[in-house]
């Protein structure tokens, strides 16, 4: 038996997930792990009403929105609610200078006006299953990490194939707890998802980058879509014959509002967290990864901003790109700040010291626990140079659009070089490249990209040690005297890849020789080949060591604390987080209330600052106090509120659900004081920022005049309302 540990120790371990509000739990395990705690917090539903495979449950109203966000179904006609920043790409793709839906908002006043979106999907979870035994039984400790990974991939594929049978479902197996557990997920994926409505940016993105990742917040960060199916109710690509989804469940909407202390849960698809990261990982984030990403993004944003401000066409084309680069630019700044302020390094070190005491005490039974941290430590120490190259590859080389785009022609080169053997494959490739090319140039401005290229690649050249340079840097040194502006100028002059017509022309009659002589293509291959030949092999060895170490360390932690409930890191699978509506004290002498109102929007209004413009119509509604049924008891219009739910990127758009299973808000952000939250949850400070559903309804109804959308929803004003069938839980499926 493993030895028990002392009390001081338990204290430490608490920072790994014992608070009721901390944790992104797997819906399948709620009944066993969390149900009692949830009831204590005020939940009135049964576990079966949250997750069930036999009857309608909350999970049936939750979707993965395109794989990068979350969403919820809010009517029996497939109406889907998510964040404005999740719909941003779609909204932007339909916008032009003349029809600028980003600035003006967009509202479909009839079904015919709803706008289809290629590449967007809504994915429902049909069921999940623990397949740990099946996978582990095929593995053994003698395997190298590579063999292990191959075996896992093979077994996972077999399990998925078997579960899929002849259904139209998508099935995947994913690993949890650093490879100690495995779960299978069966999904139904709908690919006809149409834009229904979006407020103008001055509401949906009010506060812009200044307010991003911050509380108090005044953003109406929501947009509406609709899921369509084939006439048979099954997933189908866009067709005018498709019909609105008839969902297994949709969320009734509560107009009752939130009070501090109210139960709140969030269900959605958090992307990734690193809660079991060791002190060595924290150190690397602080010393290298975060500052490098921030430095490169600083430059890129500066260049984009200048060109966007100078030209409205460029502003629209680059709006979505700018927002996503900037979102994580600010994230990494905040994460480093949080890691330092909250002493995360020291907390991790203390936990590791205690782990070592435990591992030593149990050395005889399980010697591998004793070496896990050494493996991890060595892997980090050996990784600094390779990590830097990796960061420069993704942030600088691939952050240059022409390089990334040229690189997407690699497959064509290989296929062409292999000759006519497989003409069909070549033709398919050409067709899909033509499509991508048209897509790519919709949002492209060559002069901007040329500046980005010169600046970012110069940084790469200066910051990455010479031994890790790609060969193309020799050309810049010798032929251009190290002048990156000159080099970029010539690349853009001679390459076909900055010009749509030239690329389309090339694709009419592609040939390897021309491709291999193109300077952008030469640069792209040089960066990528250098990475795969020189950097990736180092990282492979480093990661093998680290993966093994992490797997044993996480297993050890769980053995060390057998009574504690552990939750796995986020990995884009469905999770539930529960807690309550709650304000916080961000710093000495300062307290934050749990909600904001339209009054605060007016306080922040500054029509000379694009981030804080308030639309005239909203000012009018404010002046008339025309809030209708959406006001709270004090007659205020609540805009946003906070809860202590544990969420992260990917959760954006997730429903905030009350004790009865009714929708009260839409989660959209985290807060500045706890930006290190993906690495260490901070119960005193960490909050989840949500749009109040009443603000969303108010904007739809009073601002947009889209009352027909409100009509299809189910609004509830009492505890125990009569509900239409699809809005009830526990219906036989
Ligand atoms: N920080 C939010 C998230 O990652 C995105 C908010 C978008 N707003 C913005 N101003 N960029 O989910």
Explained architecture:
- Strands 1, 2, 3, 4, 5, 6, 7, 8, 9, 10 and 11 form an eleven-stranded antiparallel beta sheet that branches. The protein has a seven-stranded antiparallel beta sheet with strand order 14-13-19-20-21-18-17.
- The chain has 733 residues and is an alpha+beta fold.
- The radius of gyration is 26 Å and the shape is globular.
- The protein has two domains: 1-87 and 203-229 and 246-275 and 569-733, Thrombin, subunit H (Beta Barrel); 295-554, no CATH class.
- The two termini are 45 Å apart.
- A hairpin with a 4-residue loop joins strand 7 and strand 8.
- The protein has 28 helices and 22 strands.
- Mean pLDDT is 95; it is low at 6-19.
- Bound molecules: arginine.
- Arginine is lined by residues 85, 205, 208-209, 212-213, 323, 327, 649, 652, 669.
- Arginine (ARG) is lined by residues 85, 205, 208-209, 212-213, 323, 327, 649, 652, 669.
Please report the number of helical segments: 28
Q: Beta fraction of the residues?
A: 5-15%
Supply the number of structural domains. 2
**Structural classification:** alpha+beta
Bound molecules: arginine
Under the CATH scheme, which architecture of the largest domain would be assigned? Beta Barrel
Write down the CATH topology of the largest domain.
Thrombin, subunit H
Radius of gyration: 26 Å
The proportion of residues forming helix, as a percent range, comes to 40-55%
Could you describe the largest sheet, including whether it forms a barrel?
A: 11 strands, antiparallel
State the shape: globular
CATH C-level category of the largest domain = Mainly Beta
Low-confidence stretches: 6-19
Q: How many DSSP-defined strands?
A: 22
Question: Mean of the pLDDT scores?
Answer: 95
Distance between the termini: 45 Å
């Amino acid at each position: 038996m493993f030895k028990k540990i002392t009390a001081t120790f338990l204290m430490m371990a608490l920072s790994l997930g014992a608070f009721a509000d901390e944790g992104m739990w797997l819906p399948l395990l709620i009944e066993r792990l969390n149900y009692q705690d949830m009831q204590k917090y005020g939940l009135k539903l049964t576990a079966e009403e949250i997750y069930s495979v036999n009857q309608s449950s909350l999970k049936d109203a939750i979707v993965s929105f395109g794989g990068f966000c979350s969403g919820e179904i809010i009517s029996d006609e497939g109406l889907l609610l998510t964040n404005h920043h999740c719909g941003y790409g779609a909204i932007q793709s339909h916008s032009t200078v003349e029809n600028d839906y980003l600035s003006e908002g967009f509202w479909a006043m009839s079904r015919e006006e709803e706008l289809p979106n290629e590449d967007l999907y809504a994915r429902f979870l049909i069921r999940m299953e623990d397949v740990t035994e099946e996978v582990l039984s095929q593995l053994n400790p003698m395997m190298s990490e590579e063999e292990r990974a191959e075996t896992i991939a093979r077994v996972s594929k077999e399990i998925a194939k078997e579960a899929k049978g002849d259904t139209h479902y998508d099935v995947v197996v994913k690993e949890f707890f650093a490879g100690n557990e495995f779960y299978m997920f069966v999904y139904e994926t709908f690919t006809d998802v149409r834009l229904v409505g979006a407020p103008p940016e001055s509401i949906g993105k009010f506060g812009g980058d200044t307010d991003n990742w911050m509380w108090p917040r005044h953003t109406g960060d929501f947009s509406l879509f609709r899921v369509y199916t084939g006439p048979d109710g099954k997933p189908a690509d866009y067709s005018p014959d498709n019909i609105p989804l008839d969902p297994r469940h949709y969320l009734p909407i509560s107009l009752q509002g939130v009070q501090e202390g109210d139960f709140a849960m969030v269900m959605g698809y958090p992307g990734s967290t690193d809660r079991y990261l060791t002190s060595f990982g924290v150190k690397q984030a602080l010393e290298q990864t975060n500052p490098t990403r921030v430095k490169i993004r600083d430059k890129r944003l500066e260049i984009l901003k200048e060109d966007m401000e100078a030209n409205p066409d460029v502003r629209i084309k680059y709006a979505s790109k700018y927002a996503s680069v900037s979102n994580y630019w600010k994230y990494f700044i905040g994460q480093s700040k949080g890691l330092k302020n909250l002493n995360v390094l020291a907390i991790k070190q203390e936990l590791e010291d205690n782990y070592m005491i435990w591992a030593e005490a149990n050395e005889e039974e399980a010697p591998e626990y004793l070496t896990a941290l050494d493996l991890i430590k060595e892997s980090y120490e050996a990784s600094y140079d390779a990590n830097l190259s990796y960061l420069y590859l993704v942030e600088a080389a691939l952050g240059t659009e022409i390089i990334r785009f040229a690189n997407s022609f690699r497959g064509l080169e290989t296929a062409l070089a292999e000759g006519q053997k497989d003409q069909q494959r070549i033709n398919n490739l050409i067709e899909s490249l033509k499509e991508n090319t048209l897509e790519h140039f919709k949002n492209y401005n060559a002069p901007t990209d040329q500046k980005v290229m010169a600046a970012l690649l110069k940084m790469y050249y200066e910051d990455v040690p010479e031994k890790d340079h790609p060969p193309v840097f020799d050309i810049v040194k010798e032929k251009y005297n190290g002048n990156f502006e000159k080099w970029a100028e010539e690349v853009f002059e001679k390459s076909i890849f900055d010009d749509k017509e030239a690329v389309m022309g090339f694709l009419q009659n592609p040939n390897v020789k021309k491709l291999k002589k193109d300077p952008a293509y030469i640069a792209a291959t040089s960066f990528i080949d250098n990475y795969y030949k020189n950097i990736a092999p180092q990282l492979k060895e480093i990661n093998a060591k680290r993966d093994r170490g992490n797997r044993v360390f996480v297993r050890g932690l769980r053995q060390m604390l057998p009574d504690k409930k552990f939750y796995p890191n986020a990995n884009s699978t469905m999770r539930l987080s529960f807690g309550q509506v709650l304000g916080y004290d961000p710093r000495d002498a300062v307290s934050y209330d749990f909600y904001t109102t339209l009054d605060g929007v007016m306080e922040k209004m500054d029509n000379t600052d694009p981030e804080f413009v308030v639309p005239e119509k909203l000012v009018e509604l404010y002046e008339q106090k025309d809030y209708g049924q959406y006001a709270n008891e004090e007659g205020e219009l609540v805009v946003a509120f906070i809860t202590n739910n544990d969420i992260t990127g990917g959760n954006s758009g997730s429903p905030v659900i009350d004790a009865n299973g009714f929708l009260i808000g839409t989660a959209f952000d985290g807060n500045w004081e706890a930006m290190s939250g993906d690495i260490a949850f901070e119960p005193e400070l960490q909050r989840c920022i949500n749009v109040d559903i009443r603000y969303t309804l108010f904007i739809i109804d009073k601002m947009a005049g889209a009352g027909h959308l409100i009509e299809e929803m189910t609004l509830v004003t009492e505890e125990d309302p009569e509900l239409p069938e699809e809005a009830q839980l526990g219906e036989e499926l």
